[in-house]
Amino acid sequence: MNARCSWGNDAVSTYAGKLETNVTFSRANKRSPHLQADIRLVPSQIILNDTVWQVQETSILVDSGYIDIRDLLVENNEQFLRVNGRLATAPTDSLEVELNNVNVKYILDLVNFHAVEFTGEATGKAYVIGALGKEMQANTKLQINNFHFNRGL
């Protein structure tokens, strides 16, 4: 099955894009009552808060107890976000998120977080463990160049 998701807005900041996928449904084995979806995201372009980002080809496998993400890469020049791993309940399953020169203020603006102000460029990795379970954990090691907090040093 081919699926396309398009969006756009009519506001001060542009949020728009089109994601195209090829989806195959199957059973992990013949006895399984559950279907799994193998989603192939084709290269796309999206606009988030007036910034154009390239979304590279990736594979996402959705099963009854987990989601596998293989090399999801969203990039804008030297900035990128790469996601690999598994979202699941088990504490042995983890998802790795790698950031390179990602503008912290830009991300906080995207999620409309303005309780405090952080600026700088984040590079490093974050790990989410047991994301679909009751005791999710997150660990990170980020370096933030040009870091400022509430417009101070």
Biggest sheet, open or closed, and with what strands and sense?
A: 6 strands, antiparallel, barrel
Radius of gyration over C-alpha positions, nearest whole angstrom: 18 Å
- Spatial strand arrangement across the major sheet: 2-3-6-7-5-4
Oligomer: single chain
Could you please describe the fold and organization of this structure?
This protein has 153 residues and is mostly beta strands. It is 5% helix and 63% strand. It has one helix and eleven strands. It has a six-stranded antiparallel beta barrel. It starts with a strand and ends with a strand.
Write the layout of secondary structure elements.
Layout lengths: L1 E6 L8 E12 L7 E7 L2 E5 L2 E5 L2 E5 L3 E11 L2 E10 L5 E10 H7 L7 E12 L7 E13 L4
Antiparallel strand pairs: 1-2, 2-3, 2-4, 3-6, 4-5, 5-7, 6-7, 7-8, 8-9, 9-10, 10-11
Task: Give the gist of this structure.
5% of the residues lie in helices and 63% in strands. The chain has 153 residues and is mainly beta. A hairpin with an 8-residue loop joins strand 1 and strand 2.
Keywords:
5% helix; 1 helix; single chain; globular; six-stranded antiparallel β-barrel; mainly beta; 153 residues
